[in-house]
Amino acid sequence: MGDKITTQHPAVGIQLSVGLSALGNTAEQIKQALTTPQNTLSLVSGFLPEKQVWVGAYQQPLIKTVPDFLQDVDSRNLRFALTALKSIEADVKAYTAQFERKRLAIILGTSTSGIADNEKLLKQYFVNQADVDVQHYKQEMDSLAKALQLYLGWEGPAYTISTACSSSAKAMAAGQRLINAGLADAVLVGGVDTLCQLTLNGFDSLESLSSGLCQPCGAQRDGINIGEAAGLFLLSKETAPVMLMSAGESMDAWHISAPHPEGKGAAEAMQKALNMAGITANDIGYLNMHGTATPQNDAMEIKAVQTVFQQYDVPVSSTKHKTGHCLGAAGAIEAVICQQVLADQSWLPLHHSGNIDPELDEANYVLSAALQQPIQYVMSNSFAFGGSNIGLIFGTKLK
Where are the beta strands (DSSP E) in the chain? Predict the structure, then answer.
């Protein structure tokens, strides 16, 4: 494992991108949040019965209205997506004007879709048996990609991937495949997920929510913080300052919610990404861990990292103590972070500052944000329920 593969990699360029999360909405805000001790999570009420909970909430306003032709699918999830798109919309339209509309595709990831907007109506229906009109389409998984397709007027493939916490990373991989298969000239990829009672109560019932701020790989880790995010990327074959080099995927199917305890599927996904990129583990300058702060996930991920990277002490950190676990959008917002690390070449995201689990303390956690030397490649992991694993590798041309 780790031998260099000399096959040509099918890298695609990240022409435009945007990321909205608890970190903020600009590159400078992202850097500031990830390189300082500031807390970016919020303690809120209203999601869990008679209990406050820490979440990674987006603090800026969303657009207030959607176009008339999208009223049937209007939701906070869609408004989050459109708010993100607005910031790059003019550049997206300018760049894609060179292509036929049928050659422009959209692939997005989500796990919540518009369920939050129907939760109150569903409660009225089930608790009071009230005669309410529940618009189910806004919470269907395909509504997000189809809505953005209508909004942009594109005519190529448009679909949503929903594989829990690997959804948006898999959307990026699917976009790369679509381009390399010659089925699209440009693809809008990424993911959007918003806070809702369904997911918070679901993870609470699994006893997976942290009682405080989550501590990935921490000695006292007790679960996750849920977050929300919108991350969008415009991909094409044209070279860009940061490229999506490769994606490695696996499905270990060990358990409905728990990962394989030895991290076999996770290691397989990382190695496949390295093979596809034609590089070795030693070429990776930073690894953004999935790092949920649950006992089993963190333990297996460190084992997987040790399997793939062997004696190479790759710098690692989890950013979920700053964003929360953004579920279907986790891969996208962490890809935004990786892209920014490569673009800036001056910092790495800090791991949390709490005590590390003695059984996991051999990893090279990022405890100083200053980047000591330029890096060319970074990897980002996303692992989901059912063992749906993916590793993405991003690269840049060093000057």
Answer: 12-20, 42-48, 51-56, 104-109, 158-161, 186-193, 226-227, 229-236, 242-251, 284-288, 315-317, 364-365, 377-384, 388-396
pLDDT digits (tens, 9 = 90+) for 231-264: 999 999 999 999 999 999 999 887 776 777 788 9
Q: Residue 370 forms beta bridges with which residues?
A: 347
Active-site pick, 260, 321, 325, 352: 325
Our answer to whether residue 165 is catalytic in this structure is: yes
Q: For residue range 111-125, list pLDDT tens digits in order.
A: 999 888 888 888 888
| pTM (global) more than 0.90 | yes
Terminal-residue alpha carbon distance, the chain: 30
Annotated catalytic residue within 260, 290, 321, 351: 290
Is 351 annotated in the active site?
no
CA distances from residue 344 to 12, 73, 125 in whole angstroms, order as listed: 20, 38, 51
The single residue of 165, 196, 217, 326 carrying the catalytic annotation is 165
- C-beta of residue 244 within 8 angstroms of C-beta of residue 176: yes
User: Would residue 260 show up in a list of annotated catalytic residues for this protein?
Assistant: no
